[in-house]
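Hi there. Long-time user, first ticket. I'm pasting a complex I've been working with (about 462 residues overall). I'd like to know whether the download I got is complete or cut off, because the file seemed smaller than I expected. Thanks.
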Amino acid sequence: MINVLLFAQLRDESGKESISIEGNGWSVDELKRKLKADYQLGSLETAMTAVNEEFADDDTILSDGDTVAFIPPVSGG
Amino acid sequence: MINVLLFAQLRDESGKESISIEGNGWSVDELKRKLKADYQLGSLETAMTAVNEEFADDDTILSDGDTVAFIPPVSGG
Amino acid sequence: MNYKISKDPIVIQEVIDKVVKRNAGAVTTFIGTVREMTKGKKTLFLIYEAYEPMAIKKLEQIGAEIKERWPEAETAITHRVGKLDITDIAVVIAVSTPHRNDAYEANRYAIERIKEIVPIWKKEHWEDGETWVGNQLETLPYPSGKPKEMDIHD
Amino acid sequence: MNYKISKDPIVIQEVIDKVVKRNAGAVTTFIGTVREMTKGKKTLFLIYEAYEPMAIKKLEQIGAEIKERWPEAETAITHRVGKLDITDIAVVIAVSTPHRNDAYEANRYAIERIKEIVPIWKKEHWEDGETWVGNQLETLPYPSGKPKEMDIHD
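Hi, the file is complete. Here it is re-exported in full:
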């Protein structure tokens, strides 16, 4: 299973903080397309992706146990 | 009388914090030459002058009651 | 613990204390507070949310980047999360260096980097609604999914 | 009392409190501390001396100059006098502005101006003697008796 974390507007849009999903061997891009199809996640387009707390590309391949966080444009400071 | 204030190395050189001197109508430049002649004030060359707490030129004319401060290169901060 | 996400109000002096050294002649701090007016709109309060473990890693990364550019600099950063009222402190950055120019430059570098790579989000509560600020004009999206090297290193 | 010469240790928070406003999103502080090593020479302690009434006037002038360049800035400066040990605070400058770039710029302007026009002197006590620092290479003399307009305004 992949553990997906949602923050800020992604959390508001989906009503969820996290989603568990079968995605062993998927790319980040495939995961995004699946989530866009299943949830109301328009903001995913402009989000960055972190895999296990490091920024990752759309073609990063995911493995069971990975934590994927979608990171809307940040606004700290 | 003119009230002359000395600071930092000028104070150390002269051993004085202040000097009262007859100088009504003198220029700052004349006052400096008088002080250099009468005291050990080599550092006067590189000092700025303040008359009544505002920076003043060498040709500023002094009046009785003025306070003249000689201000060695500052090093606050 | 120079890099911290805090649910409690930030005590500025505590952040400064982490960077004071016998050879640091200059300490700069940046204190980001909640401002009432933004482009004529009135903020009532803010909510800050963080992806905490990654936010701490990214703050540490900023400290390491500073160390690479200004080897004598010491950095400490605390960012607040939760509900903040007007004038509350959202972030404190303290940087010490032997000479003052570096302390200003490195501090400014830190706040710019925080706004680029640290997963913290701000929800503005206005008189007439609420918005996640990152969704607005202030930040660029990253179409590739992650910040480019260029974004990270310059 | 935003501009102060103090015989007692400076409390940073008190200086910051003078500039916090509902519309200041950014506060920068500069904290100048006594550094142990300068060009390989070890400082034991420092004595700061001020021409106090004029020093306060000149600090106020710096605040007015900042206000002219950055109209929304609030500035507070406290400079210590007397004997200071290593890591003691010599000066604290706090500047608040609505946006952060101005807070850095205005703060830096303040410290540069302090080093030019405020009648405060530092005597370094080294292991092998003592010197008034302004007599050394750090500051230029003013042959006309006062700083030129150029020195004051740029």
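A couple of notes from our side: The beta strands of chain B are 2-6, 18-21, 48-51, 54-55, 67-71. Residues 14 and 40 of chain B are 6 Å apart (CA to CA).
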